[in-house]
Amino acid sequence: MTNLRRANISMTWKLLGVAAGAFGFGFALVPLYNVLCSVTGYGDQAKLLQRAAAVTAHPDLTRTVTVEFLADVASAGSWDFRPVKRRVQVHPGELFTAEFYAHNLTGRDTLAQAVPNISPSEVAGYFHKTECFCFTPQHFRVNEGREMPVRFFIDPALPRHIELVTLAYTFYDQSTRVTRR
Amino acid sequence: MSTAAHADSHDDHDHKPHGWRRWVYATNHKDIGTMYLVFSGCMFFVGGMFAEGIRAELFKPGMQLFDPQFFNSLTTMHGLVMIFGVIMPSFVGLANWMIPMQVGAPDMALPRLNNFSFWILPFAFTLLLSSFFVPGGAPAGGWTMYPPLTLQTGASFPMLIFSIHLMGASSILGAINVIVTIMNMRAPGMTLLKMPMFVWSWLITAYLLIAVMPVLAGAVTMQLTDHYFGTTFFTAAGGGDPVMFQHIFWFFGHPEVYIMILPAFGIVSEIIPTFSRKPLFGYEAMVYAIASIAFLSFIVWAHHMFTVGMPLAAQLFFMLSTMLIAVPTGVKIFNWAATMWHGSLSFEPPMLFALAFVFLFSIGGFSGLMLAMVPADYQYQDTYFVVAHFHYVLVTGALFGIMAAIYYWLPKWTGHMYDLKLGTWHFWLSTIFVNVLFFPQHFLGLAGMPRRIPDYAVQFTDWNMVSSIGAFGFGLSQFLFLYLIIKCVRGGVRADSRVWEGAHGLEWELTSPPPFHSWSTPPSAAVIAHGAEH
What H or E segment, with its residue span, contains residue B42? Predict the structure, then answer.
C-alpha cells in the first residue's frame, strides 16, 4: 500500500510537470510561429521588403515605359489639382517619384482624399506604389496649395507589349463627411 | 500512509459521513461522480435556457426579445456553459463512477485531489454566470474569445479569463487522477488490453486534456496581460498578431473536440456489445483507432481558420490531415456495425441512444468532411452550416453518448430499474426534435445565413421557425429525462447485479447499487475472467 501511494504521488508530480510544460509550450508557440514564418518565408515582412529591394536594385535599363499622369476633381471649381509633370519615361525596376499639385479653392479648412485608377488594368499587378498621398486623407487650410509625392516602381516582369501606363487620380472633398460625423 | 490506510479501513462497512459533510468533504469516487453529474445536469438546463433564448429570438426575422449585445452574450455563454459545464464535467463524473469499478480499484488514486477538482467548478461557474450582472454584461465575443473583439469586453473580461483558468485547473487535475488510477490501481490480471473500452477512451482523453488545457490557459493568460499589463501578444499596434491567438486557441481547440467525443466512443463501445449479445468486434482496432484519432487531433488545428489567409501548402496539409481522421473514425463506425451484425439485438433506451449516436454522429462527421475541403469551406465558413455540423457531433454525438451512459448505468448506481417506457418516449422525442432543430440549419447555412446574428434576411424565415420549434420540443423533452432520473433515484423495481442480460465487465459483478466501498479487496482472476470478456 505504501508503495502504491508512493507510485501514485510520483506519477502525479510527473503529470503535473507535463501540464506545466504544456502551459510553457503555449507561450513557446508565439516565437515558434515566427520562426516557422521566417524559415518558410510565409508572411514574413523582412523577406517581402528584401524582395522589393532586390527588384529595385536592378532596374531593367534596356526597356523604357511611358507613364502618363491624369488628375481630376469630383466637384469642379473647388480644387486646382494637376500633376507637376504630365508624362515621364521610366525603366522597369527603377524607383521614381512624381509630384501632384493641389490648391484648396473651397474657401474653408477641409480634408480631401485622392482615389487612384490605373490603366490598362492588367498593369495593376505590376505597378507598385511604395508611398502615396492617396494612402491617407490630406488636410488643407483655406487657400493652401502644395505638392504631394507618389513613389512607385514598375515590376520588371511587366508584359512586353505594354509601353504606356496611365495613372489617374480623382480628388474627393471629404469635409462634408467629416462634419456629418 | 499507515494512518490514512487505517482511516480508510474504518470506513469499510458502508460507514459514511452524513449530511453536508458527506458532500463537501467527499473523497468517495461514487459521491464525487454523483456531484459531477448533478452539477452538469444543472448546467445543462442553464445552457439550455440560453439556447432557447437564442432560438426564440431567431423564431422570426427582426428584433424580438433581446438587444444584439445580449444576444451575443447568450451565444457566447451557451457555448462556454455547454462545453466546460456540461459535456466535460459529465464525462468526468462518469469516469469517477465507472473507472474504479471497471478496473477493480477501491477508489480513485487521489481522492482528496478529486474532491478539490470537483469543488473548483461551482466557483468557476458562479464567477462566469455572475458576469451577466456587471457593467457591460456577460462576454459577447464568442466562446472562441478571439482578439481584438474579446479584448473589448467590459468588466466581465477578467471574470471570463479567471473562470477559464479555474475550469482548466479542474479538468487537468481530474485528468491526472484518471491517468494515475488507470495506470497504478488496476486489479492484478487486468492488463491494459483487457480494459473496458470506456476506460481506454478515458485514458487517451486524459492525456489529451493535460496536453492542451494548459495551452488554453496560456492563451487566455496572454489576453489578460495584453489587456492589463501592456503586453502585445495579439495587439497589432505593438507588433503582435491577432491571428496568432487563433493558432494557439485551435491548437487547444481541436484536441478539445476529441476530448468531448472520445469518452462517448468508449460508452457506445460498451453498450452496443451488451445489447447485441456479442463481444465488441475488433477490440484492438478500436483502441488503436482512438489513439490515432488523438494523435491526428494535434496536427489539424488550422482547418478552423482556412480563411485567415495562409499559404496554399499549409491549406493542403491541413485539409488532407483532416480528411485522414475519417479513416480511424470509419474503423470505429464499421466495427460498431460489425458488432451488431448477426447479433441478437434488443432496443432498450441505452441501445436506442447508442444507435442514434452512431447514425447521427456520422452525419456530423460527413458535414465535417465537407467543411474540411478548403474551397468549400470558403463558402461555409461562419454560416449556420458550421453550427449544424458541430451540434450534430456535440448534441447527437457527445450528449447522446452521455444520455446512453446514464440509461446504461443508472440501475447500477441507484439499484432501481427506471421506467423503460418513459425512457423510450424520451429517446424518440429527443431524436425527432433534435433533427427538426439542427437539420434545417444545414439548409440555412448553405443558403448563406451567417452564425451569431440576432436578425436575418426574410428568406431564411421558414427554416428558422422549424428549427426553433425543434429547439422548444427538444428542450421540453429533457424535463421528461429529469423526471425519469428523479423517479429512479427515489425508488422502483429492484435491479439485479447484472441489470442487462448481455452485460459484461467488472462493474456488473458488484451488487446494484454497489457498496459504498467496492473492490476493497481486488477481484480475483476468476472474477475478472468472468466479467471482462469483451
Answer: helix B29-57
Distances, alpha carbon B78 to alpha carbons B41, B74, B84, B502, in Å? 14, 6, 10, 38
Report the percent of chain B where pLDDT is more than 90: 84
Is B171 noted as a catalytic residue in this protein? yes
Q: Which of B109, B180, B217 sits opposite A23 (nearest CB)?
A: B217
Query: Does B184 contact A22 at a Cβ distance shorter than 8 Å?
Result: no
The catalytic residue among B75, B329, B414, B468 is B329
**The predicted structure's pLDDT at residue B76:** 96
Question: Strands B416-417 and A96-104, how do they pair?
Answer: unpaired
* Amino acid letter, B165: H
Strands A145-154 and A110-119, how do they pair? unpaired
Q: What global pTM score does this model have?
A: 0.81
How far out from the chain centre does Cα B449 lie? Answer: 27
CA separation for the pair A135, B138 (Å, rounded): 39
Mean predicted confidence (pLDDT) in A175-181: 47
Put simply, the answer to whether B210 touches A15 (Cβ < 8 Å) is yes
The DSSP bridge partners found for residue A153 are: A128
E strand or H helix at B493: strand B493-494
Contact call for A11 and B180, based on CB within 8 A: yes
Are B216 and A19 a contacting pair at CB < 8 A?
no
In terms of CA atoms, which chain B residue is nearest residue A42?
Answer: B311
How does residue A125 score in pLDDT terms, banded at 50, 70 and 90? confident
Which of A130, A108, A119, A95 minimizes the C-alpha distance to A175? Answer: A108
Tell me which chain A residues have a C-beta less than 8 angstroms from the C-beta of B210.
15, 18-19, 22
B332 phi, psi to nearest 5 deg = -65, -50
Q: How far is B514 from chain A (nearest CA, A)?
A: 23
State the amino acid at position B232 in one-letter form. T
When scoring A27, A34, A44 by the number of chain B Cβ atoms within 10 A, the one with the most, hence best to mutate, is A27
The answer to whether residue B148 neighbours chain A at the CB level (below 8 Å) is no
CA distance B425 to B428: 5
Find chain B residues with C-beta within 8 A of A33's C-beta: 244, 247
What's the rounded Cα separation, in Å, for the pair B300 and B250?
9
**Cβ-defined contact of B110 to A12 (cutoff 8 Å):** yes
Is 50 exceeded by the pLDDT of residue B8?
no
The residue among A173, A101, A107, A171 whose CA lies nearest residue A143 is: A107
Q: Which helix (H) or strand (E) holds A153?
A: strand A145-154
Q: Is A81 helix (H, G, I), strand (E, B) or coil?
A: strand
Q: Distance between CA atoms of A121 and B422, rounded to whole angstroms?
A: 70
Contact residues on chain A for B233, CB-CB shorter than 8 A = 30
Q: Within 13 A of B29's CA, how many CA atoms are on the CB side?
A: 27
Closest Cα in chain B, distance from residue A20 (Å): 7
Alpha carbon distances (Å) from B231 to A53, B221, B235, B240, B435 = 32, 11, 8, 9, 46
Active site residue B451: yes
Average pLDDT over residues B303-328: 92
B304 within 8 A of B253, measured Cβ to Cβ: yes
Whether the Cβ atoms of residue B389 and residue B257 lie closer than 8 Å to each other:
no
Taking an 8 Å cut-off on Cβ atoms, the answer to whether B311 and A12 are in contact is no
Q: Which residues contact B357 (CB under 8 A, 6 or more apart)?
A: B264, B268, B396, B397, B400, B401, B404
Q: Which residue of B has its CA nearest to A30?
A: B244
Nearest 5°: the CA angle B205, B214, B326 is: 40
B487 CB-near residues (< 8 Å, 6+ apart): B418, B419, B422
User: What's phi and psi for A65, nearest 5 deg?
Assistant: -120, 140
Q: Quick check: A12 and B1 CB within 8 A?
A: no
Number of Cβ pairs < 8 A linking chain A and chain B: 80
